[in-house]
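Sequence, structure tokens reproduced for reference:
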Amino acid sequence: MRLGGATKADWLLVGLGNPGAEYARTPHNIGFDVANLLAARWGLPKAKARYAGLITDGRVGTPGVGTPTPRVALLLPQTYMNDAGRSVGPARGALKVPLDRVLVLHDEIDLPFGEIRTRVGGGLAGHNGLKSLRRELGSADFARVRIGVDRPASTDPEIVAAYVLGRYRQSADEVRELVERAADAAERIVLGEREP
């Protein structure tokens, strides 16, 4: 696949997060963490700046006799979470990826820490990154790996923002294990071992 050309990808994986060191290792950036782990696991080349994001691509899995491996593009929007659609929309169009083959990796405060759920479509639960994707993609019918990061004991928007943009309350080992399990869930979907 050539990222600059009109070559098609089988999947576009999108890790949601915010660029910049101040947002690293925060619950809101777990989508970036999962995407980076997948890129390393799959041996994808260094990401290049394109589509207002960082993108890499390659084939995933071990080819078997007569079994082609999926071509995957992995995108980290660099637009900040609330404008992620400005990166994802052009990438999806250029790579000719069907909407249900856009797989978004994102934090989910409505799930307890450590819980992972997958699905296609559904509500956006106030997640500004998902709202931006729906706006730019024209629909919310994209696939998702929802990664539970828990929520604070408040619905005040400022407290919720401070929670997801602050450091984890869990240990580094617990966070690492969650990132690995979320990457496993995404990999199973891409390899056709599980429906979203």
